[in-house]
Design brief:
It is built from 8 helices and 15 strands. By secondary structure, it is an alpha+beta fold. It has 2 domains: 4-119, D-amino Acid Aminotransferase, Chain A, domain 1 (2-Layer Sandwich); 126-282, D-amino Acid Aminotransferase, subunit A, domain 2 (D-amino Acid Aminotransferase, Chain A, domain 2, Alpha-Beta Barrel), CATH 3.20.10.10. Strands 7, 8, 9, 10, 11, 12, 13, 14 and 15 form a 9-stranded mixed β-sheet that branches. Helix 6 crosses helix 8. Bound molecules: N-(5'-phosphopyridoxyl)-D-alanine (PDD).
């Protein structure tokens, strides 16, 4: 069945959904995006994703395509038109279309706005029960990973490299420390139960799931230490997990060929997954 895709004010069958070859995202990856999970037809963490979208746009000086209320209405219309019960909504904003020039086009250039849906389970995924095996690869991305740009070639190459190694994903390493996963934030659990994750900076994306998970973890008495952690600490961790909108919290059972704990999803990781899902479903809109 053909999906309905949103392109610059129109809801179109996917085969008619088109963007100009002069779009700055096509030519320069000059655009940003958000991925929002949908469960039971409701949006999870919507205001968090929209706040980060505004920040990404602001950092790059791209005009805002619509207000948060308008974006909410478009998301809801996409859920309705696509009969989306469970899945993801992808949103992309680009600087718009202009003749190819490294210099930005005039400040009043109209941004492009595109949304599409991807149906499929987000809660009951086999990876959640089995856990992920991650390779370690050098982080060769640009220096502003805090901006959610569509410039995803290196993460995509790293994911393929991990697959070639027979793993599910890669964690990226810079100066001997883990930054994050190819499309998720990374955490380890120490022997004493403390959770360690890298602090926010230009080196990682400020995950919306990360922020909520840290809040609910603290409410449940779990200590989270924000500091960079080394490859050695990761390899000898008691547990490990990732977070993202599409995976919530998902356990990691192997890092760089070394089994983590007993090689099965760790109890704290699974508990944090449960309480995060509970909380985000409660707040879904
Ligand atoms: N990825 N770090 C990176 C590099 C990411 O691409 C993502 C999200 C995250 C987690 O952010 P959040 O919790 O807000 O989803 C961290 C999305 C899901 C994607 O690219 O599909």
């Amino acid at each position: 069945m053909s999906r309905t895709v949103y392109v610059n004010g129109e809801y179109l069958p996917e085969e008619d959904a088109k963007i100009s070859v002069f779009d700055r995202a096509f030519l320069f990856a000059d655009g940003v995006y958000e991925v929002t999970a949908v469960v039971g037809g409701k949006l999870l963490e919507f205001s968090g994703h929209m706040a980060r979208l505004r920040r990404s746009l602001g950092e790059l000086g791209i005009n805002e395509p619509a207000s948060e209320d308008e974006l909410l209405a478009i998301h809801r219309e996409m859920v309705a038109r696509n009969g989306l019960d469970e899945g993801l909504i992808y949103l992309q904003v680009t600087r718009g279309s202009a003749d190819r020039d490294f210099a930005f086009p005039p400040a009043d250039t109209v941004p492009s706005l595109v949304l599409f849906t991807q149906a499929g389970p987000v809660i009951d995924k086999p990876t959640a029960a089995k856990g992920l095996r991650v390779a370690l690869l050098p982080d060769m991305r640009w220096g502003r990973r805090d901006i959610k740009t569509v410039q995803l070639l290196y993460p995509s190459i790293a994911k393929m490299e991990a697959k070639k190694l027979g793993k599910d994903d890669a964690w990226l390493v810079e100066d001997g420390k883990i930054t994050e996963g190819t499309s998720n934030n990374a955490y380890i659990v120490l022997e004493d139960g403390r959770v360690v994750t890298r602090p926010l900076s230009h080196a990682i994306l400020p995950g919306i799931t990360r922020a909520s998970l840290m809040r609910v973890a603290a409410e449940h008495g779990v200590t989270i230490e924000e500091r960079p952690f080394t490859v050695e600490e990761a390899r000898s961790a008691r547990e490990a997990f990732i977070t993202s909108a599409s995976s919530f919290a998902t356990p990691v059972v192997e890092i760089d060929g070394v089994a983590i704990g007993d090689g099965r999803p760790g109890p704290l990781s699974m508990r944090l997954r449960e309480i995060y899902i509970e909380e985000s479903l409660r707040n879904a809109i």
